[in-house]
Structure formats: C-alpha cells, structure tokens
Amino acid sequence: MGATILVVDDEESARELLYLHLSSAGYRVLLAEDAITAGHYLLEQRVDMLLADIEMPFMDGLDLVQAIRNDPAVSSMPVVFVTSHGHYEDRAKELGAVAYLRKPVRGDQLLATVAKHIAPRSQASAASM
Question: pTM for this one?
Fold first, then answer.
C-alpha cells in the first residue's frame, strides 16, 4: 500500500472525487468531513500528506494547518490546499503549503502534485523501517 493521505473537505462529493483519484493511484486515503475529525486521525495514525479544503465548519483549513505546524509530530507533513477560493493563496503559502489547487481539480494535476511532494518523505520513511 502506498503512502497515507488525509483528505479534509466538508463536501462529500469533493471527498469522494479525491478519494477515487488517490486510491486508484495506490494511495491509502483517509476521509474527514471537518478539522475535528482530521485532528483525531492525525493523533491516531501516521499520515504522509494532508489535502484540505479551506472553508469548512467548526475550524477552517487554514486554522487546522496552523495547529499542525505547532505540533512537532506532524509539523513537517506536506499540506496541499484544494479549494474553490483563490484569495487565500498567500496565507496558505505563509503556513507552508506545498501547493494550492483550485476546484474543480483535474485528476492528473492532483496526482502530479501529490507525487511531487509525497515521494521524498515516503521513501525516507520506508528506508528507516
């Protein structure tokens, strides 16, 4: 099984579309409908990459990533924002996002972005086992 990717989006159709693209490429995909559920996954499982929407209930994706950056256990995890809004890109970069994809995202664009940013970390993790 490939690397584990956590997808956080409050829209079920968006989660399912990302799941289909990523799982068909061999990734293990965890789905969360909000930042609270995502936080539980991050505490309980090893996650190699986070794909997050920005506008969600309870806690938005930017706040979620800010919290991740303050936790040494997951602070270096690559983050890709997948959102329909373009006006958060500067803030996403400030938080260290490796990519900012606009919805609707194309499957080839998504997979190329994930492969570019997940491969070095996953290979290093596998080598240390």
Answer: 0.90
CB neighbour class for 5 (10 Å; exposed up to 12, middle 13-18, buried from 19): buried
HSE of 9 in the Cβ direction (CA atoms, 13 Å)? 22
The residue that leads in pLDDT, 2 or 48, is 48
Q: What is the DSSP string of 7-48?
A: EE-S-HHHHHHHHHHHHHTT-EEEEESSHHHHHHHHHHS--S
Report the helix count and the strand count for the chain, using DSSP H and E.
5, 5
Query: What whole-number distance in Å separates Cα of residue 7 and Cα of residue 122?
Result: 17
Strand order in the sheet with 49-52: 28-32, 4-8, 49-52, 79-83, 99-102
Q: Could you tell me the residue range of the domain that residue 63 belongs to?
A: 4-127
Closest CA to 47 of 3, 92, 101, 2: 3
Domains identified in the chain, total number: 1
Q: For a pLDDT cut of 70, what percent of the chain falls above it?
A: 91
CATH, residue 39: 3.40.50.2300
